[in-house]
Amino acid sequence: MSKKPQRGALAATDRVKLEIAFDKVQLLGPLFGQYDQNLIALEGQLGVYISARGNKVVVEGEADAAARARDVLTGLYQRLLRGEQIDTGDVVGAVAIASDPSLDGLVHAETGLATTAAIRTRRKTIVARSPTQVRYIEALGSSDVIFALGPAGTGKTYLAVAQAVSQLISGSVDRLILSRPAVEAGERLGFLPGDMKEKVDPYLRPLYDALYDMLPAEQVERRLASGEIEIAPLAFMRGRTLAHAFIILDEAQNTTPLQMKMFLTRFGERSRMVICGDPNQVDLPTPGASGLADAVKRLDGIEGISTLRFSSREVVRHPIVGRIVDAYEGPPKDA
Q1: Beta bridge pairs of residue 57
Q2: Which pairs with CB-CB distance under 8 Å and at least 24 residues apart come from 212-218?
Q3: Which of 103, 132, 156 is at the close of a domain?
Q4: Residues 93 and 126 reside in one and the same domain
Q5: In angstroms, how far is the first alpha carbon of the chain from the final one?
Q6: Which domain holds residue 221?
Q7: Is the Cα dihedral 191, 194, 195, 198 positive or negative?
Q8: Are 141 and 128 in contact (CB under 8 A)?
Q9: I need a surface site. Which of 79, 195, 213, 235 has the fewest CB within 10 A?
């Protein structure tokens, strides 16, 4: 049996004690996490000490840190009351959001959490896990065109698909169109075996995966068959007008400026368009010719267009992914 990690108390100087009482004792297990891993994460993030007895939790630490820990615990408990699940990643994200002064207008005054930064789909509710995700979710609900830039694992495509599914379910759009450049920017598919669907499906698999995470499998299949959801390579967008649709372009760093212009000008009435990509992962023969970087520069400041930039510190996969991104983007080490 695994041994429960030990947590040490703080020094006795300059600290406060805050007590929180929770009505539903049965929710404290999920709140604390297996072997108290959520509490351990909260202690590590804020430098506080947390103890529990019965339905009461005591937080000790510097005044600001203790108050923040109390607010995070209260906010996470409210999520459990709503039937949502939480894990250590939610704890880390909640601390980051509550600690970001730029989010003062978006964070709930009592809980310290961005309670409105959530997307509800048929299978789950997705809650923001980083400050930029809070701003991204706000933009997804208000801007016509959104550029989401940053490394893998920051939730760019996942949140865009979640918002697309949410709007399809609510009826605010009639269809979803999800696209990626296939096989580099030139989309050279002819040498691959199989028909066109078999050629392009491997490159579109991440979009399928996100969809199946948001909707029951039978609904995904039915909507794909009816055309309500379309997943296609970028070349298939040429010559179309995409109206009443939520449109997502993933891996947009691998478009040329002409391809990006073609895609952006497909925008039609009552539509929303999200362009996701990592400017540091360009697969083009000439990386400086990326249509993503060109578009962001050209369209800066235009009304109705938002640009969100994620950093490696906001990777919401395993923490090691962020460290790997930093290692590759930094200067090479000497052999």
Answers
A1: 20, 52
A2: 213/123, 213/124, 213/158, 214/121, 214/122, 214/123, 214/124, 214/161, 214/162, 214/165, 215/121, 215/122, 215/123, 215/165, 216/122, 216/123
A3: 103
A4: no
A5: 42
A6: 118-329
A7: negative
A8: no
A9: 195
The DSSP code for 269 is T
DSSP element (H, E) containing 18: strand 16-21
Q: Are 214 and 121 in contact (CB under 8 A)?
A: yes
- Name residue 111's beta-bridge partners: none
Helix 63-81 and helix 37-46, axial crossing angle in degrees, nearest 10: 150
pLDDT, tens digit (0-9, with 9 covering 90-100), for 162-202: 999 999 999 999 999 999 886 543 445 555 555 555 666 77
Is this prediction's pTM over 0.70?
A: yes
How many other C-beta atoms can be found within 10 angstroms of the C-beta atom of residue 147?
24
Distance CA 334, CA 248 (A): 40
| Nearest alpha carbon to residue 316 among 139, 93, 159 | 93
Count of positions (residues) in the chain:
335
Rounded to whole angstroms, the Cα distance separating 22 from 45 reads 22
**Are residues 150 and 24 part of one domain?**
no
